[in-house]
Every structure is written in structure tokens, then in C-alpha cells.
Design brief:
Blueprint lengths: L6 H7 L3 H13 L3 E5 L4 H11 L5 E4 L9 H14 L2 E8 L3 H9 L11 E4 L6 H10 L5 E5 L12 H11 L5 E5 L13 E4 L18 H7 L4 E4 L1 H4 L5 H24 L1
Parallel strand pairs: 1-2, 1-8, 2-3, 3-4, 4-5, 5-6, 6-7, 7-8
Bound molecules: 6-sulfanyluridine-5'-phosphate.
Pathway: Pyrimidine metabolism; UMP biosynthesis via de novo pathway; UMP from orotate: step 2/2
Pfam family, one: OMPdecase
Protein name: Orotidine 5'-phosphate decarboxylase
Length: 265
């Protein structure tokens, strides 16, 4: 069992620069909400990013689903990240050999490494994927999350797969600062991986395509995760984006304060 530390305490002692920036931001802005903006039009993506900006620590993108992607979109997203004080996480889920992911991360139309503070990778190809991404991302001060567990029904990310993924992260802590997972992954008091958790919803339990939702309370208090990732729960109703982001921010932060309180008691 780990000694409990606040986001602020962790920011002070974390060895990974990207993790430090994120934890400082969460403490400063009092939010552990990441919004996943999975929309296909540039204008809509920018409008949602602007509306949720004040409430999030991280804005998560799937840049390859945007029909009218251009360089200006990236520049505007970077500007919004500065204005509202959030980090950008391109959810690219790299899954190839090291040499290929180097190009996918740094080159092509999207040049992800040039603008996305955080990205993520599957561990299925083995450790070379981390080294390849690290060659490109570390000199730019970027950070990587490994997909240790997925939220969807029937996911194969369990048992030895998850254990091995954590072991890989442990060997690359200068670049890998945490996981996409459904529970806390630290095994000793020295470890401080950040766990960002998708599959979060307050109103529904699933989406008919395998997604499974838990509440912010279940994720933060019961499972000890750090950041809630919410997509359709926030942007699903276009008239309520701001209200829903405030609602999820409040729920996520209340859950975090409850966890702090439990550990003080
Ligand atoms: O296991 C996972 C990992 C990820 S990154 N399950 C997920 O749902 N995600 C992503 O989180 C997914 O790609 C989507 O962008 C977001 C969840 O969206 P929602 O609309 O279901 O909240």
C-alpha cells in the first residue's frame, strides 16, 4: 500500500518532467478532468476545446478523425492550451515496431510530437515501441502513457499483459510517466505512476459498442486513479458542454478530496 500524497506533493517529488507539469497544473487549477473531444470537424473541435478549457487539466484528441485537419488547427489548439492552461494528449495508441512509430510520431501530416505534450502506446510489440517513441519525444520534453488496461468489454489487456506493461514502464521512467488503466498501478512506495482512466460517465453504463462506464467516485476513490477521461458525457449534448464539463470537474475533484480525507483520517 502506498503512502498517500496530494497531487501537489507528488508534483514536488516526481522525477518525470511531464508528470511534474501535469501534477502542478492539476493542483493549480484544481481539476483532474480530461475531456476526450472525439468530433470530426475542425470548428467543432476548437469550439468544444474553448468551452471545456477552463475545466480541464488535459484535452484529449484523436486528430486523425478530423475531416478538415490543417496546420492551423494545431496552432489554434496550442493557443487554447496556453490561454486556458491545459496540456494536449493525442490519443494515438501507437502499436508498431520502434522504427515505424518513430516516423508515425514525428512525421507525416500530423507531426504529433511537435504539438502534443502527451501520447500513448500499446505494449503489444514489446519494449522497442517505447524506445522508438522516446528517441523522438524525450528531447522535446514529451511524456508517454502505456495502455495497461482498456475500458471496453472483453479487452485482452489483463493479467500478465498488464503486469508486463507495468514492468516496461518501470524501465523507462524518464519518458513513461503512467498508464491508461482502470486502477492504480504502483507497487512500492517509491513508485508514482499517473493513471488516466477512460470509461467514465455519470448517466449511462455503456454505449452499445463495448464501452463500459464507471463514475468518477468509483474511479478516483475506489480504484485510486488520478485523472478521469470523459468524452460523450461532456460533449454529447452540444447545448450543455460547459455545464457538463463543470459537473464532471466538480465530481472528479470532490472524489479526489474524499480520497485525501480518507487517508488523513
Ligand atoms: O481503454 C480505453 C482507452 C482509451 S484512451 N478506452 C477508451 O475509451 N479510451 C478513449 O477514451 C476513447 O478512444 C475515447 O476517446 C475516450 C472515451 O470516450 P467516451 O465518449 O466513451 O467517454
Amino acid at each position: 500500500m502506498n503512502t498517500f500524497k496530494t497531487y501537489g506533493d507528488r508534483a514536488k517529488s516526481h522525477s518525470n518532467a511531464c508528470a511534474r507539469s501535469l501534477l502542478e497544473l492539476m493542483e493549480r487549477k484544481q481539476t483532474n478532468l480530461s475531456v476526450a473531444v472525439d468530433v470530426t470537424k475542425k470548428a467543432e473541435l476548437l469550439s468544444i476545446a474553448n468551452a471545456v478549457g477552463p475545466y480541464v487539466c488535459v484535452l484529449k484528441t484523436h486528430i486523425d478523425i478530423v475531416d478538415d485537419f490543417d496546420q492551423d488547427l494545431v496552432e489554434q489548439l496550442e493557443q487554447l492550451a496556453k490561454t486556458h492552461d491545459f496540456m494536449i494528449f493525442e490519443d494515438r495508441k501507437f502499436a508498431d515496431i520502434g522504427n515505424t512509430v518513430k516516423h508515425q510520431y514525428g512525421n507525416g501530416i500530423y507531426k504529433i510530437a511537435s504539438w502534443s505534450h502527451i501520447t500513448n502506446a500499446h505494449t503489444v510489440p514489446g519494449e522497442g515501441i517505447i524506445q522508438g517513441l522516446k528517441d523522438v519525444g524525450l528531447p522535446l520534453g514529451r511524456g508517454l502513457l502505456l495502455l495497461a488496461e482498456m475500458s471496453s468489454k472483453g479487452a485482452l489487456t489483463k493479467g500478465d499483459y498488464t503486469t508486463e506493461s507495468v514492468a516496461m514502464a518501470r524501465r523507462h521512467q524518464d519518458f513513461v510517466f503512467g498508464f491508461i488503466a482502470q486502477q492504480q498501478m504502483n507497487q512500492t512506495d517509491d513508485e508514482d505512476f499517473i493513471v488516466m482512466t477512460p470509461g467514465v460517465g455519470l448517466d449511462v453504463k455503456g454505449d452499445g459498442l463495448g464501452q463500459q462506464y464507471r463514475t468518477p467516485h468509483q474511479v478516483i476513490v475506489d480504484s485510486g486513479c488520478d485523472v478521469i477521461i470523459v468524452g460523450r458525457g461532456v460533449y454529447g449534448n452540444p447545448d450543455q458542454v460547459q455545464q457538463q464539463s463543470a459537473r464532471y470537474r466538480d465530481a472528479g475533484w470532490a472524489a479526489y478530496l474524499e480520497r485525501c480525507q480518507q487517508h488523513k483520517a
